[in-house]
Amino acid sequence: MTFRQRHLLGIEPLSPPEITDLLDLADTYVDLNRSSDKHDEVLRGLTQINMFFENSTRTQASFEIAGKRLGADVMNMGMASSSVKKGETLIDTALTLNAMHPDLLVVRHPQSGAVDLLAQKVNCAVLNAGDGRHEHPTHALLDALTIRRAKGRLHRLTIAICGDVAHSRVARSNVHLLGKMEARLRFVGPATLMPSGAANWGVEVYHDMREGLKDADVVMMLRLQNERMDGQFIPSPREFRHLYGLTAERLALAAPDAIVMHPGPMNRGVEIDSDVADLEGRSIITSQVEMGVAIRMACLDVLTRKTRGISGWAKETSSGEWV
Ligand code: CP
């Protein structure tokens, strides 16, 4: 394996071989997770702390399950009942927990860049579980694993990423990852929900849903992130569904074997209709959740290989740099 990162803060610094190695390792954890004895001991004796400053169902649960299945001692910090509520800063909170000698910190934070900042202050591996609109690296990895298992490859697939791209860290991480793996990417949505400079991201931009979906191999719908909208980005949810919701009729414009994805949680009846979200053989939304556990196991595994004395992994030089 080639993975040489100290932290997992984003997809941007990863090389295609590092991504491929993580996906290959995650495939082995899918098999473990489907067996009757789901336990491994690779993280035995190690401590994992999950710090979620923003709500989560899928990411927090899967990181907890992943750590426990690999034998780590896992602690979920209840941030709502922590001293953050008394005004303690992110950095002081991190330094306090760091003094307890964790080996892994899993962090979700509403501010872009907050997880990166925290990683500079602690001496254990940090995994970004989603920071603001910036990156959600394990989500892009689980999406890639799900697509690769469904389609057999990532390269030369046409992937339409649809809806609220502007507020989506999932979209950003997916553009980095799927672009590195030579997929053909499209953004589909209203101009008000496109990130500035979207045309320079190496994607084709469509404002007409019918054109954007034409012959796509993968239709990746995004959640309308109402909590990140400080103004009016769409006339109304009803109008948005009318123009950009994924209906069965619109899905018929994609390739006949196109798969449907959504990172969750879904606004059913807004960005995606229930009959499409639940369409057997086409919707792989529950597979994404399953792959999330396996990919997080792979990430926890590789980021602790140095701690566990496994050679060939990230190394600290005499000047304190990680190479
Ligand atoms: N997709 C995703 O990150 O879901 P959660 O917010 O439930 O973790």
Task: Explain how this protein is built.
With 323 residues, the chain is of the alpha/beta class. It is 35% helix and 14% strand. The strands form two sheets. It has a five-stranded parallel β-sheet. It has a four-stranded parallel β-sheet with strand order 2-1-3-4. α2 links the parallel β1 and β2. α1 packs across α5 and α5 crosses α6. It is globular. 45% of the residues are buried. The mean pLDDT is 94. The structure holds phosphoric acid mono(formamide)ester. Phosphoric acid mono(formamide)ester binds next to α2.
Keywords:
323 residues, alpha/beta, 5-stranded parallel beta sheet, 4-stranded parallel beta sheet, 35% helix, binds phosphoric acid mono(formamide)ester
Indicate the proportion of strand residues.
5-15%
Which cofactor or ligand species appear? phosphoric acid mono(formamide)ester
Which stretches are low in confidence, meaning pLDDT under 50 for 5 or more residues running?
Answer: none
What is the rounded Rg? 20 Å
What is the total tally of β strands? 9
Structural class: alpha/beta
Q: Approximately how much helix is present in the residues?
A: 25-40%
Strands in their spatial order, largest beta sheet: 7-6-5-8-9
What is the succession of H and E elements? HEHEHEHEHEHEEHEHHEHH
Rough shape?
globular
What is the end-to-end distance? 15 Å
The total count of helices amounts to: 11
Instruction: Look at the structure and give the mean pLDDT.
Output: 94
Biggest sheet overview: 5 strands, parallel
